[in-house]
């Protein structure tokens, strides 16, 4: 069944987060990059935990540009990481609007749109930062959690 459930004042908390920025010219290579991330995690004698997390942040300026980060939680903190990666012991994003989307993956962007409408109708200012957690995804049925940080 298709649905988008929304809530306010939620906190996103992730632990042992390995992240990698995706440059615009790499967008076509995301499946390969994900495989490389998983291989890197295993090379550190660790395992990925939970679903893929995507973070999109728009950097302000004369020509604002979105930056895309892919994130994976792992079962242990790495002491050192390769230059292309970043590691956070705990990533906590408080005071977010939250949407739980269930439906076709092709329509999952509706969750973010619904949160933007909720913010507009309730005069809530949002930061230009969106976290999407792909709990389950296939062409027919996807479950995606979306967190938008309030300003």
Distance from first to last alpha carbon = 33 Å
Order of helices and strands: EHEEEHEE
Q: Biggest sheet, open or closed, and with what strands and sense?
A: 6 strands, antiparallel, barrel
Helical stretch tally: 2
Low-confidence stretches: none
Global morphology: globular
Helix content: 10-25%
Record field, number of beta strands = 6
Major sheet: order of its strands? 1-3-2-5-6-4
- What radius of gyration results from the CA coordinates? 16 Å
Mean pLDDT value? 94
User: Proportion of β residues?
Assistant: over 45%
How would you classify the helix and strand content by structural class? alpha+beta
Structural features:
alpha+beta; 6 strands; 151 residues; 18% helix; globular; 6-stranded antiparallel barrel
Overview of the molecule:
By secondary structure, the chain is α+β, with helices and mostly antiparallel strands. Helices cover 18% and strands 53% of the residues. It has two helices and six strands. A six-stranded antiparallel β-barrel has the order 1-3-2-5-6-4. Strand 2 and strand 3 form a beta hairpin.
Brief overview, please?
With 151 residues, the chain is α+β, with helices and mostly antiparallel strands. 18% of the residues lie in helices and 53% in strands. It has helices at residues 30-43, 109-121; strands at 3-22, 48-59, 65-74, 86-103, 126-136, 142-150.
Helix-strand blueprint:
Layout lengths: L2 E20 L7 H14 L4 E12 L5 E10 L11 E18 L5 H13 L4 E11 L5 E9 L1
Antiparallel strand pairs: 1-3, 1-4, 2-3, 2-5, 4-6, 5-6
